[in-house]
Structures are given as C-alpha cells and as structure tokens.
Design brief:
By secondary structure, the protein is mostly beta strands. The chain is 11% helix and 28% strand. The strands form 11 sheets. It has a 5-stranded mixed β-sheet, with no helix packed on it.
Amino acid sequence: MIQFPNAIKQSNLNFLKSVPMPQSCKPSILLGAAASILLSSCSDQPNIKTVKDLDNDHDWGIYRGDQRSNQFSSLDQINAENVSELEVAWTYQTGDATTSSAIQSNPIIIDGLLYFVSPAGQLTALEATTGALQWKYDPRSEEQKGGNYAVISRGASYWSDGKEQRILFSTDSFLYAVDAKEGTLITEFGENGRIDFRNNLGMDPQTVDTSMTTPCAIFEDYLILGTRVGEGFGSSPGHIRAYNVRTGDFEWIFHTIPKEGEFGFDTWEFVEGETYGGANPWGGLTVDEERGWVFAATGSPTYDFYGANRKGMNLFGNCVLALDARTGERIWHFQTVHHDIWDMDNPPAPILVELEIEGAPRDAVIQMTKMGYMFVLDRETGEPLFPVEERPVPASDVPGEESWPTQPFPLKPPPLTRQGFTKDDLTDRTPEARAKALEVFANFGPSEMFTPPSLRGHVLFPGMSGGMEYHGASFDAERKLLYVNVNESSNLMRLNQTVMLKDDSLLNQYERGKALYQLNCASCHGLELKGLPPAIPPLVDSTKPESELRSIILNGKGLMQPYKSFSKEQLDGLLEYIKNPDTSPANFEDRETKTVYLLEGYIRFIDDDGMPLFSPPYGSLAAVDLNDGSIKWKAPLGEYPELVEMGIRNTGTRNFGGAVATRGGVIFIGATADEKFRAFDTETGNVLWEFQLPFGGYATPSTYEIDGKQYVVICAGGGQKVARTQSGDFVYAFALPD
C-alpha cells in the first residue's frame, strides 16, 4: 500500500481523480528532498485499432484491403526492381483439405496475427511473420468432422471498440463471433456466440436455405451481410440485413425483392402461390465511412433462366444499391440487367474510388459484371459518369416468357471480353477441336449479346462464369488505374420443357423427389444428372452411399450450399430419384398441370480434353484508366500446361482470385490453371516474377508490413472450379531476403 504524506495526500488524490487513467496503471510516487511528487503512467495502454483505423491502404485488416474494396497497398519495399528476388518466408498447412475443397480466403492481418478460413471452415490465426499457429476455432459438428466436409469462405471480418477485439466468420447458415486473441466464442453474441441468419427474413426459418461465402461488412456497431441462396424455383430471398456486432440483435432489413407498398414492388408481376428468391449480394458489401452508406451489388432473381412467373424489370435484382448503413434505407439504385434470364449476376461488391473526369473531381462507384462491362457511377446519385445506352435486344420465343426489350450498354470503359459468339471465335488448335467447334457452331451459332435462352439453344458468350468475378479488382488511387482479371468463358445454354403438377400432394415419394430435383438441383447438376465435372460432379450412376449423399445435401460441400429446409420425406424421395433417375416426361393425364422451362445444365463450350472450343485469350489481366475510360494495356493471364506441351503459349486461362497492386509498381495475382503466383509490372503488364505453387492460388492475396519487413501472402487451396487441378491446404508467404 502506498502511503501519502498528510500534507499532500488529499491534493494528490483530487489530482488523480481528475485525470482519467487506464485501469491497469497505478501512480508511481517519487519523494525528493522537497517532498515533491511525480505522477506518471507505469505503462501505455495498447494501441488497439478499430475498423475505422484499419480503413487504409497499409494494414490489410479488412477483406479486400479496406472498406472501399480497393485491393491496393501503399507498401513499396517490394517493387518492380527487386520483386524477382522474392523468396518463401514461411508456409502453413491446414490439414483439412478434401478431394473437392478449396481455399478462397483473403487473409486479414491485425496486431501481428493473420486470420483466414480453412477448407473445412476452421477460423485460423497464425503469427504473421513466421506462420506459427496461434489458435483454431472449429465450428464443425461431429458428423461434419467425420465426413469430407468443405466450405467456400472468402475470409473473415474484424471489429473492435478500442478495447475488445472480435473476428466474425461464417459457415453454413451461422455467423460466429470469436475473441481475436484467444480464439474462443464470445458467448454473449447471439445465441452462445453465433446467429442463425435463416431468421429475420419474414418467413419460417425452417424453409430457408442460405449461407454466406463472403465476409460481412462492419460499420460502427453494425455488421451487415449479404448471403448466398439457391438458383432454382423455390429459392430463398437474398435480402440485406444488419445485426448489432456486440449483441447479435437484429437491426434492419432491406428487401431486395420488394414487399407491397415498397419502392420497386410494381416492377414485378407477382403470381399468387409462387416463391420468389435470389437478388442477393453474394459477393459482399463495401462501406463509405464518411457518408455512413453501405453499397451492394445483387445477382439475378430466381429461377435464373425462365422468368414467366416474374414478368417485369425485377428490382432489385442485378442492381447496384446505396443504402443508409444505420437504417437500411435505400438512397439510390442502378440496374445493370433488366429481368435477368442469363444468370448475369454482379459478382463483386462495388468499388469506391475518387476520380477526375473532364477536370472535375468525382466520387465514384465501379461495378463489374459477368458480361465484361464496367459501370462507372456517381457515388452520390447513382447516375452514370460515362454514357450508358439502352439498346434493343432479341425477344424471347419461349412460351410465357417476356424478356425485357432493352438492356444497358456502357460505352466507357469498353467491354473487357468478347461480346457474343461468331465463327471467328472458333478454335483452330487441332483439326479435331476445329471440327467439333464447327459442329457446335452449325447447331447453336451465331449469337449476339442478350440472346434469350431458348429450346433450340445458343452459345452464351461471355458465359455464366465470364467477365469479372467475385474477386473484384485493384485500384491505384494516385494513378487512377484499375487492374482486373477477366474470364473469356462460355456456356451452351438450352432450355427443356418440363410439365409439373400444380398440386403435388397426390404425387408418390419418387415423383416428389423428381420434382424436387428438377426445381432445385437440375440448374447445376443438369436435367440428365451429368453435372459439370470436375467442378460439379455427376449424380447419374453415383457410387456414393446414401448416408453420404444425405449429409452433403443437408450440410453442403464446397461449391454446393446446404439445403437444410428439405424434410426427411423430401430427402427420401430425392435420394430415391437420384439412385434410379427417370428423365422421361411424366404422365399427368387428367390432372391440373403447369409448364416450366428448365436449363439443361451448366454446359461449358469445351472439347473432350476440357480445353475451350474458342480461340485465345481464355483469361486476361487488364489495366483500365478510370479518368478517361480507356484500356491502358491487356495481357494474357496464365497458361494451360497441356497447351504449353503442344507449343501453344500465352493463351491465358480461366481464372478465379483477385489482383493486388502496390505503390512499388507490382501487381500480385494467382488465379490461374497453371497454379502459379505471379507479379506483373503495373506500367506494361509484363511478368516480372512467378512462383510454382503446389496447388492453385484461387484466392486474392494480401500484403502487409511488420517490423519494417513487407510480406505477400496467398492461400493455395487448389480446387476444380478453374481447371482439373487438385485440392490442397497451403498458405504461402513471400518476402525479400534479409
């Protein structure tokens, strides 16, 4: 106990009361000859950063770099002159990869710890300079641990009030809050540390199928989330919701499919008895801290390819949205596709940038699309900053469908992919490939942009995984250049007529299983159960035991989301149909029926070797000047090893995983089918360095600095969405030699 001299005790106690001090600190008293006192803090309070503190181009404490999704770093220790000297600083293996898993995490780094989500959904914290494991939080059930459970997660979010630190991440339909230092659940959040976001949609949560692949946005004490939902009839809606980050309490909802009386309701012709879903911002959200706004980019309403039950423009499907982050109130919207029947989602969250257009400073929003278009919008109003034309497009001839007569075409920047399908696009790689391409063209070509789905079929180019994907782009605020990788992907799109009962209560178990498959599963696995190997496995002649199939349907696996809403009776019927499929039309004589048109399947325009039947490039990296809307340069991204062996080089490949540019004049990107990690020159697009990863780096890298040393890190989890590459479980960090 400290004893105070009587003469000074009270005055110094009053002084101490008037000065706020950290609880962990005590006054030290130095008594000198004059009995003077020196009060000081024994130690400084740790500098704990909040999200607002991390909203910069240096720390990489936020998914995609900052609140604005700029994916750019001001670090320049690694630069164009020395990047060729990069070497492996450390590696880490998660140990939980499966035969079809992937790692899409963009790691975040806070207080020397690196956080990411493993292939099996384990939130993992590593020491960021060595890769040493600090802790793991494993949310899996015992059943999931015992099987080949895998998730798609693009990372985690961070929140702090300057004292407490939380990491938030999601698997299945749950969002967890975990202590950033200890790796333990914060039990006062939600129900025992998690919220189930099947709730708060205004419908029975047991009927909801949803998950979250992209980290939630954090603004003040709000966590705001966009979700992933199904693509078929009966899918859940993709409404945007906010929760309290401290308690998990529900705060607000924005209906992306408007309710009666809400703005946009009259852009739908709703049909009584139908279920409406989709219109979800599955690629995440961005935040304007100064305005207090959150920005979202939504996908298509469901069913994705036939919209007879949803005639109209269908707001807020395929929209860029600006919302008040505190209330969810709509500020403005811009629709990039009207009445989408092509699955032309807006994959990445909007990018917030500051430009100078025609000599005037403009706050802007950049939205990238599967069509290869880039919309540049005024951040305050949503109006285009470069011209956008509404042009007539072909009409649908499918019974019941009313495709929208016009679509928006941005004039600047120019499209970053080919537009439509012509004979000039066909491959001449080998005589056999050329012959097959000509055969397909004779049956399904040519086609222009926004050719609607039909019973005849056509080649959709760019396809459902074309253009710019969820990984976004990197924006250099000083040079006003945007660096983005794009896919020249294509699909054969054809509809099949399907007759169904209006009242399915009279169907037997097998017939109900068939109907359930057609409405929920066929859009991915195909009406003939052939899938799209290797990314989407075939179900016909499946050798998987029934127990494993049941677990995959309920829990999800990799690219497939969980379908927890299916009852035991529905699952029994579905599994009975999968084991003994009869794809012939059903006979519903003398019963009231309805006719729908379903996509035959996600059929890629490829040959028997998995190579594209169109000419290169198959994937590119581009630099776009956003001040004037011009393309500065464009370079092939990656190579197919099979083509390299044939002497065919610099073709580019299908690619998933974003680019990160730095002030050092370097762009880092993995993403490609050759499983390499590359550094490009920001000025020329030339490759400056490359490293052969053991598995594909199909994730966006991160870069950070600790103790004066810059690191670049990428998750190398492979997977089969890009090509026939194996799944893995590595994290690789690179740095310059000491």
